[in-house]
């Protein structure tokens, strides 16, 4: 199956609903380690993305417009990284009418790399990067959409579980040091919810 | 926590509307509406531009320091969020008079990413440099000084860089002065009670009745210790001890002291703190010049205070003393 | 309630020590140690003296307004207590350059008794007059205007009387200008949370979570109503309505607006209030000039805000705009 | 019996102890109607008075010195009125080696009148003036110290009871209007404690 602009729009709509539902949960998770705004910020970002005009856009253009909507909505770390990832994927998709499920692994990997470059964090720092890395790996060789979606959702959930027992090593959360052991990273938690929503 | 506000979604824009309505020297601009620039446009002054930016909720930071001898323009984000890349681009453009622009802002993830992106997107048109405020000694040890976050002390760099830019100095020279000022500034804060982000249903952290936290960050990031309230003198002593122990190389024997309210703490308490801080610094043989006591960098209604020391030398001393003019800080 | 202080008994003196150490333009004087005067001694300026005084806990009131074009000297009492008669005598003496002294202070029992006694005790040496700040419209109806208490709006009378005295005007003329300014000033406050007198084991009043009180006084005196929190616009609307309904005769169509924090309320919220207040006043066909938004008269850590209107005329308009200089208010 | 400077000093010492004991009670009473400082202020004033040097002073001089000590300690309404009353009595006693108990009624009346003049309140406004007025009346014709002291204490207690059901009409308390009905005026409460202490 191929992914078109409509597929992307539907995924954004779903993600938007999911994030609204988990807004206070994500705020609470962030409040343990940061400033308690992850949920509110993502709700705002996805709200703006859901309003973005994707008419007459091929997937690459659609992703770029979504990224721009995100950058207009926020300047927070996670929001900006999110936009950075979308931009990277949009650049990869440029000029193509459709995207194949088989391309997704490489696309997520390119988002991960662009975000790593922009944010200066490394794999293993217990951030969204680790979730994306796990998703990229899980998507490898997947060609059916449901298989891919399930694998991504599972990988995001597994990454959250795996990293829970490790300390955060970047951003505000870094300053809590070993107190972050046993606590979910709010960004990873958000990715889990988002991946889960798209899988549904 | 009670706030005099309307919809949380309008908090920042309504605040900026009031800020500019009350202060005609500040103009709100850009498509984003999230940039404040000097009313007497900096672009035709033939000087290096100095821009800053950051999240809302810290007034007079950041936007309040736009003015002659300080910032030329400033981007501003939502409460405790970095400014958007669009607003950073606009701020840089509004500050550019053809001699390049210094990006001078606090060391926070979102701020950094957005100013970096803005700089990259403008790199064919405008030469920019970066200096990050890293004055908060509680946020990392001396060996990791570059990782420290920026707090109230950044206003000293606004002042010296802004003053130097007014003299016609070039971008590299202005950048060097800003960096030197950051390198010679040390801040530590103590929090007494939290603030709450508009729209959030919880305060940003919780301190028990009679509990305080030394070194807590301006968004509630963890500090050095949490314990029961002590006397103002004991608190000032510990803060000054920690600042002096972290003295920069070549600190010299002249310093400015900034005693800053985090928001709710009143001037009375700041002056009681200042009295002790000054005596302690003087007892070290350091002359205190150009002290600042008041609300310079806040976290809305958070209670507590920060103390900053800027160790002067013969270059930045006169820049600190030279004229500047913004709604919240005037030197003549 | 947590405070950064040492012994409550030292609160005022340590505060004054810090205030004067941080602001060399202010000098602490007198045997009582409870007077602040201008460093550039007013006594040899051959001008009418303007003095004020009041209890501590209201910074920048009262002592912070000592400076050129404002007050010449100021006596200061314990927290929320009037200044002692001794300090009032000293303040009057320090302000006297041979042309007489205006006593300009808020309408509170202790302040009045002590300034009256001081005036009587000096009557053979120094000619004095009195003007009482009575701007708080919540404290008595229009028919009992003389009984109203003085709050933030008194700074407008400091400004016009101080400016007029600088021109060399005589005591009666300066007194008349101060009285006219008081007569044309109206203030109303809204309290969100209390403050606590140092040494007391209770806050000065209690408001439930989410409760506010319209018209409450700066020491917790009762207001007009107590109810749940409303939007900033609704609150600003009611305050402006009440102020405009109490407009002085001959109010005219130019006014200054002062949006003042009672202490803990941050600048962000003040600007949100100001934005609405200004729009409402403009909608009445009144031009807004020289707005003031910030911490001008507080009650330590009390949360809330007051709005004052000064209705200008051709005499006091220019006096409000003329230069003045103190640590908390500069006009150039 | 006659009243000498030592008698005055002893009364001040007693009053000082009593006020310390009732400091928070008086603050609480004032907090209902005013700014909650009556107790703290009086404790400070009487503390300073107890420290005053009364050596080589006749009663009139002693009273004047006590009044000065009070004016140095506070600028509050009640404190200033208290000093005003002491000054008035000191003026009456001027030049006399001793005061007779029989003079006390007139002395208290002169304090009351001076305080009325200074503060601008009237009898019936539910203030210390009403307590002093009741005391002055009760002292009339009393010549024995214990009789006088008892009568004063009783009068102060009665005045407090009588005025409780009326509204305050002066100072901060005035603004509470009819809410002050049923509530003790803090100044009158203080006079009751002080008169009681001296009677002991
Ligand atoms: N430099 C970074 N690189 C990768 N991920 C990051 C980085 N900084 C933050 N994050 C992610 O963003 C999440 C916090 O997001 P958010 O609350 O919006 O940021 P903030 O409030 O700190 O600006 C973290 O949980 C983490 O997963
Ligand atoms: N003008 C006045 N005349 C007589 N008594 C007064 C007057 N004002 C206040 N009082 C008395 O003083 C008491 C309040 O004292 P205090 O709390 O020290 O005053 P404040 O805090 O208002 O300065 C009142 O209970 C009343 O008895
Ligand atoms: Mg966050
Ligand atoms: Mg944030
Ligand atoms: Mg009082
Ligand atoms: Mg009182």
Report the strand count of chain B: 15
> Which sheet architecture does the biggest sheet of chain B show?
7 strands, mixed
For this structure, what is the CATH homologous superfamily of chain A? DhaL domain
Q: Low-confidence parts of chain A lasting 5 or more residues at pLDDT below 50? A: none
Oligomerization status of the protein chains = heterotetramer
Structural class of chain A: mainly alpha
Write up this protein.
- The complex is a heterotetramer, with two copies of chain A (200 residues) and two copies of chain B (332 residues).
- Chain A has 200 residues and is mainly alpha-helical.
- The longest helix of chain A has 27 residues, at 5-31.
- In chain A, helix 2 (38-51) crosses helix 3, helix 3 (59-73) packs antiparallel against helix 4 (77-93) and helix 6 (128-139) packs antiparallel against helix 7 (145-164).
- Chain A has a two-stranded antiparallel sheet.
- In chain A, 70% of the residues lie in helices and 2% in strands.
- Chain A has a single domain (2-199), classed as DhaL domain (Serine Threonine Protein Phosphatase 5, Tetratricopeptide repeat), CATH 1.25.40.
- Chain A has helices at 5-31, 38-51, 59-73, 77-93, 104-119, 128-139, 145-164, 171-174, 186-199, and strands at residues 2-3, 99-100.
- Chain B has two domains: 9-183, Rossmann fold; 185-319, Dihydroxyacetone kinase, domain 2 (Hypothetical Protein Tm841, Chain: A,domain 3).
- In chain B, strands 7, 8, 9, 10, 11, 12 and 13 form a seven-stranded mixed beta sheet that branches. A six-stranded mixed beta sheet of chain B has the order 1-2-4-3-5-6, with helices on both faces.
- The longest helix of chain B has 17 residues, at 267-283.
- The interface between B and C is large, with 54 and 54 residues.
- The site of one magnesium ion has 5 residues of chain A, from loops.
- Chains A, D: Residues 6-200 form the DhaL domain.
- Chains A, D: GO terms for molecular function: glycerone kinase activity.
- Chains A, D: This is DhaL domain-containing protein.
